[in-house]
């Protein structure tokens, strides 16, 4: 077997491994659609390498050569569709269909041209270049790319350019005088070697990107409250210290607001847990509507919420809390009896120098306790210095 034949065999095995890997990744719903398309592309790649291997074994390889081209084009389109779907980009189906229907008769027409013709090799490689180049142009315009996504765009761009380089290598080294001798040519060795490198580089990058997305999704779910979509306590406690540390370095003011739904046990007793969930979701929706992009909002307990307000002093935080309080008190919650309204109490504490999250929460919690003792449905602000001699668990029990 020639060196190019060995590389063909290696490419077939590599394509099979990637097909299996992406098929396994596709069991996760977050990346299911792109992973299935990409897995299918590597299956088609295996078929293509197998068909190319058959070229040297038949007397009249015209049909086999055409079949290899068809399968190869299908594999490339399938792969690029998977990549574009990963980035939620529009698939240019009409353009791809026109390109395929134009390239198939072109491939038949150039079969009888001299095999060492630069024009012939260029026309053969041109559909591959256009398909890959189209995907690259769409990816360049995709928003929110990170370093790995940019690297993938670069590798795909290199893959597109390598199709344009092949005619020059064919002219320099010769593609063999017949299709059957292609696999023994130096050009075949160079072409298959470049293809192997690009297949591995692209496959690994896409696999790493999909696994990255799965890890981000898993982290997000572990830090997100499933009922409200807000951060849960763990997520809130992870985010706030990062923000307050930066605020402390820049001396930008900040405040924290703790909210607690009033008489929530009575809500559950009267309307059941489904009714309680409706109230919690409605209050969370009020927070989401009122929050700015830099606010950190979390559900830190059953009916307790917290909001970190970077850039807001105690007075501004109080106005923020009052706006939410009055809006929620007037809110008619769909699914609950029309005349019934619900309220919440609020405690506000301003960030001090060297504050820990626990310090801010403690002062805001004391202010919330004062709001509860003042009749509920009100906002109270913690003084800059407080003396906490009470038992927080006792305070919570009074809510």
Task: Please specify the SSE layout and strand pairing.
Elements: H1 3-25, H2 32-55, H3 62-86, H4 93-109, H5 118-140, H6 147-173, H7 186-222, H8 233-250, E1 254-261, H9 264-290, E2 296-299, E3 304-310, H10 314-329, E4 344-350, H11 357-373, E5 379-381, H12 392-397
Parallel strand pairs: 4-5
Antiparallel strand pairs: 1-3, 1-4, 2-3
Helix pairs in contact: 1-2, 1-7, 2-3, 3-4, 3-5, 4-5, 5-6, 6-7, 9-10
Keywords: Membrane, Transmembrane, Transmembrane helix
Protein name: diguanylate cyclase
Pfam families: GGDEF
* Corresponding CATH architecture of the largest domain: Up-down Bundle
State the helicity in percent bands. 55-70%
Structural class: alpha+beta
The end-to-end distance, rounded to whole angstroms, is 81 Å
Low-confidence stretches: 388-399
CATH topology of the largest domain, by name, is Rhopdopsin 7-helix transmembrane proteins
- The tally of helices reads 12
CATH class of the largest domain: Mainly Alpha
Structure description:
The protein has 399 residues and is α+β, with helices and mostly antiparallel strands. The protein folds into 2 domains: 3-222, Rhopdopsin 7-helix transmembrane proteins (Up-down Bundle); 233-397, Reverse transcriptase/Diguanylate cyclase domain (Alpha-Beta Plaits, 2-Layer Sandwich). 65% of the residues lie in helices and 7% in strands. The protein has 12 helices and 5 strands. The chain has helices at 3-25, 32-55, 62-86, 93-109, 118-140, 147-173, 186-222, 233-250, 264-290, 314-329, 357-373, 392-397; strands at residues 254-261, 296-299, 304-310, 344-350, 379-381. Strands 2-3-1-4-5 form a 5-stranded mixed sheet, with helices on both faces. Helix 1 (3-25) packs antiparallel against helix 2 (32-55) and helix 4 (93-109) packs antiparallel against helix 5. The longest helix is centred in the middle third of the chain and has 37 residues, at 186-222. The radius of gyration is 32 Å and the shape is elongated. The termini are far apart. 34% of the residues are buried. The model is unreliable at 388-399 (pLDDT under 50).
């Amino acid at each position: 077997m020639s060196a190019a034949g060995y590389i063909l065999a290696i490419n077939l095995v590599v394509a099979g491994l990637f097909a299996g890997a992406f098929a396994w990744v596709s069991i996760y719903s977050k990346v299911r659609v792109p992973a299935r398309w990409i897995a299918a592309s590597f299956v088609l790649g295996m078929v293509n390498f197998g068909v190319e291997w058959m070229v040297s074994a038949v007397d009249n390889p015209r049909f086999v050569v055409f079949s290899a081209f068809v399968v190869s084009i299908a594999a490339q389109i399938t792969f690029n569709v998977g990549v574009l779907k990963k980035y939620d980009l529009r698939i240019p189906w009409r353009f791809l269909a026109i390109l395929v229907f134009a390239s198939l008769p072109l491939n038949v027409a150039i079969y009888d041209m001299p095999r060492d013709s630069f024009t012939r090799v260029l026309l053969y490689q041109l559909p591959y270049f256009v398909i890959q180049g189209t995907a690259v142009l769409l990816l360049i315009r995709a928003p929110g790319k990170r370093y790995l996504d940019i690297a993938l765009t670069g590798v795909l761009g290199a893959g597109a350019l390598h199709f344009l380089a092949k005619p020059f290598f064919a002219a320099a080294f010769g593609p063999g005088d017949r299709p059957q001798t292609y696999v023994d040519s130096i050009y075949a060795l160079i072409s298959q070697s470049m293809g192997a490198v690009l297949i591995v580089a692209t496959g690994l990058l896409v696999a790493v990107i999909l696994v990255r997305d799965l890890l981000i999704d898993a982290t997000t779910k572990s830090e997100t409250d499933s009922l409200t979509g807000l951060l849960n306590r763990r997520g809130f406690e992870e985010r706030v210290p990062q923000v307050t540390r930066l605020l402390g370095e820049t001396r930008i003011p900040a405040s924290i607001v703790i909210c607690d739904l009033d008489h929530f046990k009575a809500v559950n007793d009267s309307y059941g847990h489904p009714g309680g969930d409706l109230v919690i979701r409605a209050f969370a929706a009020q927070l989401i509507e009122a929050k700015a992009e830099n606010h950190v909002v979390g559900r830190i307990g059953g009916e307790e919420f917290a909001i970190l307000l970077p850039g807001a002093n105690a007075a501004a935080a109080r106005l923020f809390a009052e706006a939410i309080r009055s809006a929620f008190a007037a809110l008619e919650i769909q699914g609950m009896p029309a005349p019934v309204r619900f309220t919440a109490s609020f405690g506000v504490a301003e960030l001090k120098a060297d504050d820990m999250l626990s310090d801010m929460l403690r002062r805001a919690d004391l202010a919330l306790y004062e709001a509860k003792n003042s009749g509920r449905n009100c906002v109270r602000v913690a003084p800059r210095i407080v003396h906490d001699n009470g038992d927080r668990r006792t305070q919570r029990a009074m809510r």
